[in-house]
Amino acid sequence: MASIYKIVSAPEWRAAEAAGVFSGSGIDIKDGYIHFSTANQAPETAAKHFVGMADLVLVEVNADALDIKWEVSRGGALFPHLYAVLPMSAVRRVVDLPLCASGEHRFPDMAE
Predict the structure, then answer these.
(1) Which residues are within 8 A (CB) of 106 and not within 5 positions of it... i.e. 6 or more apart?
(2) Which domains are delineated in the chain?
């Protein structure tokens, strides 16, 4: 089972859990799809879009349970995008994404 990852603020995620679905963060709604990253892409995504931000979570999602579109994005790499809401049934785990003293985020072990 393939995993993909979403970095999101903890308050946004708590609201999604209460709603039973995640409709996306601001950039997702603006772009018309939910942005995800692979395990290899997630640290670079954090460094590019979430630098210095605290109170984030990393959401691990079962990509096989969704209609994921793999599309060219940053640096010509294929990134996973979801053109629908994310149902909680596809979520494998949610973990805190703490900041290190260096300002980088400390990622847990992640499966591809």
Answers:
(1) 97, 98, 99, 100
(2) 3-96 (3.20.170.20)
Task: Provide the CB-side half-sphere exposure for 101 (13 A, CA).
Answer: 0
Q: Are 25 and 9 in contact (CB under 8 A)?
A: yes
**Residue range 4-53, pLDDT digits in tens:** 999 999 999 999 999 999 999 999 999 999 999 999 999 999 999 999 89
35: nearest Cα among 73, 2, 65, 64: 73
Contact between 28 and 91 under an 8 Å Cβ cutoff? The reply is no
- Token pair, residue 99, equals 């900041």
pTM recorded for the entire structure: 0.94
